[in-house]
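Here is one chain, start to finish.
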Amino acid sequence: MRAPRKIPKRKSAGRAAPETLCARLSAHVALDVQPSGEIVAFFNGVSLGLGKVSAAAAKQAQGLRTGLPLRSLAAGERNANKELAVFARRLARLGLLEYAVGGSKGGEDRVIIEPQVPDYWPQTPPLRDSDVLVLSRFAYMRRRANDMILESPRAGALFKISDPKVAATLSKMSSPQQVRQLRRDAGSPGLKILGLFVDGHILFKIGTAGDQGLRSTEGDANLVLWDFHDLVFHARSTEGRHANPLGGTYPYVGVSEPPPAVRRPWPGEKIDLLQLLDADSAALSPAVKLLRERRSVRTFDDRQPITLSELSQFLDRTARVQSEWSSRLDAGTSNDDGPMLAYTARPYPSGGSSYELELYLAVDKCSGLARGFYHYDASAHVLVPIPVRANELDAQLKAAEMAMGESAVPQILITMAARFGRISWKYSSIAYALILKDVGVLMQTLYLMATDMGLGGCAIGSTNIDLFAKMTGLEFHVEGAVGQFALGRGAETESSN
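Its structure:
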């Protein structure tokens, strides 16, 4: 009797190799452990004392030079060195750590994580084989020197992709992919990397059958209203959600000559306009005089701070709602089925009468008004106090002081925040650009009124959108800071344009 023929076993598809997530010092950071147990960090030409730790913790901290498994730094781990865990968290808050995912057997890094916000700590939410993931429409890859960078304006970190197979997997995820299938592909990212990408809003889960992960299913109803380029511009041109150099750093000194203050004249015949001007300065209108007297005032007289009465007049003349009305949107059909749209009129112009800007006041010194954080209700002409932590209020005022290059905080810092959906519900492609134009015209309105009232004012070039989000409890994409203006009674010192 012939023995039954053996059917060869089908080879199972390869699964992604186990991965290890480690924390380590960023490349520009060095630690020096003193004999006393004091640890000093050196970075960017700065030394910073980090306090004392025990000899055992100091010895373990040396492992951060090459990397320590993140699980050994988790506060909930029974065997974790609690002192080392606290120390690592402090390094993370200072932005001195990076994280790497590599093979469990000491393989090369597949992904390196560079935090972009101070409180970032890697999270790997659990994923099931049945979960379906898709690439976020806000995720993008770009070249940075010799590295390939994956990032999103929604993420608290960026990802340096060191393994081409990870990039290849991402390229497939413009359409939904089941985790089970991804894990079967040789060389594809494992659950740790996929989980980190989900935590960083690079990937997101989709649920119902037939869901293709399109615009309407990612995030909340406010996120739907954002175009990709607008959200990138908002997150990367403000402070708080990236770790790039910011402000007047003069990055191109030695690379190119500074551009001239006045453009070189165009060639050709010139039409002289000077001879047409009225030489009598007394004939100038009040508006012209006001424009010529406008200056940026960066120092304020704290012995005689601005009063609540003056602040009331200032807000009434610059930002108060003057009238309200509604009209039905013409939907372009024979039926009048368009929604009713509400409008207001205020002292400054706004694109499409949108008036998406809200004013929030961080008050340090104002006679008749307590120190604190307030929202200005432009319709009722009232200030509404918002409870914030003292260190958050101090941080916002201190940032304005540093931006102005002065040694004292402004008496009042006005933050212009945009209700982004008010503009993007109507306008495509140009929404954020319109918001910045509205900021510009409101900024000039504040300048002129401060000048007219004998007060001092100064535009602030940068705003911390992450700090504002913490102070208000609003997501940065829902209502966020887009401009700031320092206000107070100017000191009799310098002024500049």
